[in-house]
Design a protein that fits this description.
heterodimer, A: alpha/beta, Rossmann fold, five-stranded parallel β-sheet, 5 helices, 7 strands, B: alpha+beta, Heat Shock Protein 90, five-stranded mixed β-sheet, two-stranded antiparallel ribbon, 6 helices, 52% helix, kinase activity (chain B)
């Protein structure tokens, strides 16, 4: 079973193609197109890594990042956006994002970041404090 | 420089600042859209590459239908990027002339397409009803574009929670008098616009003064119209 990845982006064509490419790299991906659906998905099927756009209609990526980090601190969040603001990058990193990439992204760099972020989760000392731990299928439970 | 030596009146300076901000807002939205299109092209080109590698490893050909679908997506997005660049190019050239006759329908359509992302992000949808008679004013094209952007901004964003799920239906209509250009902006039925948010800032007033237009509130705050203070002829 590959890493569970949830992709969130309102550019449907982009996120579906990226999802297909990550599947070819042995990842178990699911794509949604808005922040609200992403949060529902995180509650029902928590991923190990969340890849999220920032500027979306309705709830934006920063709000999603904030909420996910509050409820599921062990989900690693990678921001992938077309928005080039340094302020947003800093905000995301301060909120606990693992990495911040600008579109278009190099798939090898993204692949590496996904795997490294997951390794970080596995070695995070907070895991022994009960914030969350891996279960059989590789999911994390808050 | 002391105020007495300042060659630029305060209203002009405020209008200039607002113009730069406006240009930045549209440039940011447009480049964001462009990055998204490039990202789609990048992923589709990458997918084609991934499929080639897989086909080589397994010594099986790429599904021709799949390859053709990917190729079509790339072609479609190159066209999309080209359209965006043409619009942005038109927008950039709007500063070329001091004053000229500006077609208002064309201007509204250009602003609407350039700010589509901003409107969509605020949950808005825009309908532009074509004018019954040509609607033109004599002004600097760039300033007119700015004025229309401000009108849409007031209509779309000033009363809204960007995170709200409620869709904001917005409509732009044009007046029927050839000699008295008028553009009306309305929101969903039941929505009320407060008078005090309508072009109330010094920057907005400078903008209106520059194009010699005034704001007219519609009955019950259903919207507002921009109309020229004096007749214009093409």
């Amino acid at each position: 079973m590959g890493l569970k990845i949830l992709l969130v982006d309102d550019e449907q064509e982009f996120v579906e193609t990226l999802s297909e490419r990550l599947q070819m790299r042995d990842m178990d991906t699911h794509a949604v197109f808005d922040g609200k659906t992403a949060l529902a998905q995180v509650q029902s099927h928590p991923p190990q890594v969340l890849i999220i756009d920032l500027k979306m209609p309705g709830m934006d990526g920063i709000q999603v990042l904030q909420q996910v980090k509050q409820t599921h601190p062990f989900i690693q969040v990678i921001v992938l956006t077309g928005h080039g603001s340094e302020k947003d990058r800093k905000t995301c990193m301060d909120l606990g994002a693992y990495a911040y990439f600008q579109k278009p992204v190099d798939i090898d760099q993204l692949n590496t970041a996904i795997r490294q972020s997951h390794e970080k989760t596995l070695t995070d000392p907070r895991d022994s404090m009960g914030f969350g731990r891996p279960v059989d299928k590789g999911f994390y439970q808050p | 420089m002391s105020p007495n030596n300042d060659p630029c009146p305060e209203t002009d300076r405020l209008a200039d600042m607002a113009d730069v901000k406006f240009f930045g807002a549209l440039a940011a939205a447009m480049t964001h859209d462009m990055k998204n299109v490039l990202a789609i092209i990048n992923e589709n080109a990458g997918l084609l590459g991934d499929l080639s590698v897989k086909a080589q490893k397994k010594a099986t050909p790429i599904d021709p239908l799949k390859a053709s679908t990917i190729s079509e997506k790339i072609r479609k997005n190159v066209t999309r990027a080209d359209t965006m660049m043409k619009r942005f190019n038109r927008f950039s050239h709007s500063m070329d002339h001091a004053e000229e006759f500006v077609d208002m329908e064309e201007t509204v359509m250009l602003v609407a397409s350039l700010s589509e992302r901003i409107i969509r992000r605020h949950g808005g949808t825009l309908t532009v009803i074509p004018p019954p008679v040509p609607c033109r004013i004599h002004a600097r094209r760039f300033v007119v574009l700015h004025l229309i952007f401000r009108a849409l901004d007031i209509l779309c964003c000033n009363h809204a929670d960007p995170a709200s799920d409620i869709q904001k239906q917005m409509t732009v209509r044009f007046g029927s008098e050839l000699t008295r250009p008028e553009i009306c902006f309305t929101r969903d039925p039941g929505f009320m616009i407060k008078r005090d948010v309508l072009f109330d800032s010094p920057k907005d007033r400078a903008l209106l003064a520059h194009v010699k237009m005034k704001v007219k509130m519609m009955d019950a705050g259903a919207g507002f119209c921009l109309c020229t203070a004096r007749p214009e002829h093409g």
